[in-house]
Specification:
Layout: H1 3-15, H2 29-45, E1 59-62, E2 68-71, E3 77-79, E4 93-96, H3 97-100, E5 113-117, E6 122-123, E7 128-129, E8 133-136, E9 144-147, E10 153-156, E11 165-167, E12 176-178, E13 181-184, H4 192-199, H5 202-209, H6 222-226, E14 229-232, H7 235-277, H8 292-308, E15 319-323, E16 329-333, E17 336-339, E18 353-356, H9 357-360, E19 368-369, E20 380-381, E21 408-411, E22 416-419, E23 428-430, E24 435-438, E25 441-444, H10 452-460, H11 462-471, H12 482-486, E26 489-492, H13 495-519
Helix pairs in contact: 1-7, 7-13
């Protein structure tokens, strides 16, 4: 469920007079507007307002021909029917921003410290102020001069489509805002909460976006807001609208929480499936399967033959897992031996084996390529292109599309691409094409006894992630080193069972992904 789209649908219904029923007992907005205009005129006579403060006020009304007209301060009248964006109930009234809002006031900081609201202080997803700056008055920016009060609505002049809009409650009413905001203050025509509804609606945001000018920081002007047409309901209906929207949004927030909880459950179920898979508990064992020990012995025999032929050298520090005379597993790295009695896989099926990751693939042995030697249409994979936890490639970018000069690792279709940087993000990809990747990604070529699909699922399992996190070095940007990566323990099933495991995981994950898609 797209809660943001649903919220906008509710706001759209609200500002069109379709969210709550009309009440014939409501005082029409036209009567309210006339009263406010009369009060302004009286304040001008009393010297509390200057004539220039009301010179732009206009009266919008329907003529006998059912068309909309606008009467200006000098007495001229103009038909504005082509400017009216949509119909509203008869008890409503269209009104320019200059008539809806009280003029903005300036206020410079005083004392030693002050609280400042700039664009960075706005959470544009929730339309709240969440990062007020506490500054010394002597360090006050020149833009810190906009007075706010309880019930004000801040609307950013810069890039309105970013929706840097916020409601000022009583706790924030002592702050000073940047001149980068238009501060909407009601003059009695608009309920402050309904004013917030208006300013966060797509009608206003999209409408004001059309007035943007400038290349680097496209902005609107004060006059764009003050000349904009706003639909004004009777005050009583404004209150009913706000009450209805508040209730609806509270329901949506609860639904969103439940949606997030369900998404977490889906992730937890996937993790459990992988945990069962790498322990030999996901699919049934088949006594006819060739045991993994035979596969492992074959790998080791082939390696010994290559050493004997002088094609490769023996690594005296290579990590190997073996079973001792006491029937327990041990890890040998060079001359150092350590017991694996606390290892979690003591109950693996008899046809399975455990070994080191380095025995099964070329962990850390990469082909480095300079960027200038890569063709323009070649696939360049970066960490940002991979979705965490799923291993989904979000986008394929070519060298021509990516500004990159660092050395890359070459990979080919069928390899497992493992991100050694921040292992907790769980970015593991099974490549479906040839390409080049950042040096933070290791292309892994597995022996014939290991399906790349099974290897990928193993590297995505909670067991391997926990190991990688434990061994990683670096605080801000932790990485799994080559030595620790090679000696990571790997549970190896018979090849036929690997195929059954992968097929079963794919089936379960497909169903879980459908649930996730339905939730979004």
């Amino acid at each position: 469920m797209d809660t943001k789209a649903l919220r906008q649908k509710i706001l759209d219904l609200a500002i069109r007079g379709k969210l709550v029923p009309q009440d014939p007992a409501d005082e029409p907005a036209s009567v309210l507007l006339e009263r406010i205009r009369a009060e302004k005129q009286q304040m001008v006579k009393a010297g509390k307002l200057k004539p220039k403060d009301i010179k732009n006020d206009t009266v919008i009304y329907k003529g006998a021909d059912n068309l909309h007209y606008e009467k200006f301060a000098d007495g001229t009248i103009k038909c504005i029917e082509d400017e009216i964006p949509f119909d509203v109930p008869d008890s409503w009234q269209w009104c320019r921003g200059c008539s809806c809002f009280r003029g903005m006031e300036s206020l410079r900081p005083k004392g030693k410290y002050f609280d400042y609201i700039d664009i960075d202080a706005i959470d544009n997803k929730n339309h709240k102020v969440n990062a007020v700056k506490h500054l010394l008055v002597k360090d006050a920016p020149s833009r810190a001069s906009r007075k706010v009060e309880n019930g004000s609505v801040l609307f950013s002049f810069v890039r309105p489509y970013l929706e840097n809009i916020a409601y000022i409650n009583e706790q924030l009413s002592h702050c000073i805002a940047s001149t980068g905001f238009y501060v909407c203050n009601s003059n009695g025509i608009l309920n402050s909460k309904y004013m917030f509804v208006l300013m966060t609606s797509n009608y206003v945001i999209d409408g004001l976006n059309k007035f943007m000018k400038g290349d680097n920081s496209p902005s609107i002007r004060k006059g764009d807001i003050e000349n904009f047409l706003f639909p004004v309901p009777p005050l009583s209906e404004q209150q009913r609208i706000v009450k209805k929207i508040t209730f609806a949004i509270s329901i949506m927030e609860r639904l969103n929480i439940k949606k997030n909880d369900l998404q977490k459950e889906v992730i937890a179920v996937k993790s459990k499936i992988l945990d069962l898979a790498i322990r030999g508990k996901l699919v049934a064992q088949d006594p006819n399967d060739e045991p993994a020990s035979v596969l492992l012995e074959r790998i080791r025999a082939e390696k010994e033959e290559l050493i004997k032929q002088g094609k490769i050298k023996r690594n005296k520090k290579e990590s190997v897992i073996f079973k001792g005379d006491d029937n327990s597993y041990y890890l040998r790295t060079g001359e150092l031996e350590e017991s694996l009695e606390n290892w979690r896989f003591n109950d693996l099926p008899e046809t399975w084996e455990i070994c080191c990751l380095g025995e099964l693939c070329n962990y850390g042995d990469c082909i480095n390529v300079n960027t200038e030697d890569i063709t323009e249409n070649a696939w360049i994979l970066d960490l940002e292109d991979i979705e965490k936890d799923t291993g989904t490639v979000l986008k394929k970018v070519t060298k021509a599309q990516r500004n990159s000069v660092s050395t890359k690792h070459k990979f080919h279709s069928g390899q497992v691409l493992y991100s050694k940087l921040r292992p907790y993000l769980n970015k593991v990809v099974l490549s479906d094409d040839d390409g080049y990747c950042t040096s933070e990604i290791l292309p892994l070529e597995f022996k014939n006894c290991v399906l790349p699909e099974y290897a990928r699922y193993y590297l995505m399992s909670g067991t391997f992630i926990a190991y990688a996190n434990h061994c990683s070095y670096g605080v801000k940007m932790p990485r799994l080193g080559t030595t620790d990566g090679k000696k990571a323990i790997f549970s190896l099933p018979p090849l036929s069972e690997q195929k059954r495991i992968v097929k079963t995981i794919d089936s379960y994950f497909m169903q879980l992904n459908r649930i996730s898609e339905a939730l979004t």
